[in-house]
Write a structure and sequence with these properties.
Layout lengths: L23 H14 L7 E7 L5 E7 L2 E2 L4 E6 L3 H8 L2 E8 L4 E11 L2 H10 L2 H9 L9 H15 L10 E15 L7 E8 L2 E7 L2
Antiparallel strand pairs: 1-2, 1-5, 3-4, 4-7, 5-6, 6-7, 7-8, 8-9
Helix pairs in contact: 4-5
């Protein structure tokens, strides 16, 4: 199936070194807010990329749950494939794409586990059904059938009887501390704007890149 004729021009906005915030975190918050106001579907969804031992990168969609001056937080099962990959190599990538705004953001950073208190606080804020799902799923492990998973969910529902389970020890958050963040704004004729922030001796340096 050829897709070479599928294209569109990008005319939404421009991006300059003079227009961006001094901090990439502040710039990201501005863009994330724009995406939310534009009613972008799943505006907080991001690709989370790990480097695997076999040399192949692995990418999956996760939801951003917090932004702070330290970085970007998401939650997962620590025994999942991504959790095991981070344990061996905590250099990771994050990628956001907001098609409606013709924007994307690429983040390189170091992943660190959040505190147990932070993990428990977020877990306790989740709906009961999501908590039980986290307890029932041995994420990334081979599953013989969906019915087995559903049976495990029913078993836990009966066991907890409407009560909320405790946060599993193998479930929690990661904080991705950025060292490089690139902001991409689509422009006409593929002459896109690319502004990158790089952390150099604890200070953010801003550069423009060729499209």
């Amino acid at each position: 199936m050829k897709l070479d004729s599928t294209r569109r021009e990008y005319r939404y906005a421009a991006l300059t070194k003079q227009s961006v915030a001094a901090s990439p975190i502040d710039q990201f918050k501005d863009w994330l807010n724009d995406a939310q106001l534009a009613n972008v579907n799943d505006f907080s969804a991001m690709s989370m990329i790990t480097a695997e031992a076999d040399g192949f990168p692995q990418s999956r969609i996760v939801l951003l749950k917090d932004i702070s001056t330290e970085g970007f937080t998401f939650f997962t099962n620590y025994d999942s494939r991504k959790g095991k990959a981070i344990e061996k190599n905590n250099k990771v990538g994050l990628h956001f794409f907001w098609s409606e705004l013709e924007r994307q953001v690429r983040i390189d950073g170091i992943a660190e586990k959040t505190t147990r208190k932070e993990s428990e606080q977020y877990f306790n804020s989740r709906p009961l059904e999501s908590q039980i799902a986290a307890c029932a799923s041995a994420q990334s492990a081979t599953l013989t059938s969906r019915s087995k998973l559903e049976e495990q969910v029913r078993s836990l529902q009966n066991a907890f009887k409407g009560e909320h389970p405790e946060c599993p020890e193998n479930w929690g958050g990661y904080l991705v501390c950025p060292v490089r963040i690139e902001f991409w704004q689509g422009r006409e004729s593929r002459l896109h704007d690319r502004i990158v922030y790089e952390l150099v001796e604890k200070e953010w340096k801003i550069k423009r890149l060729s499209p």
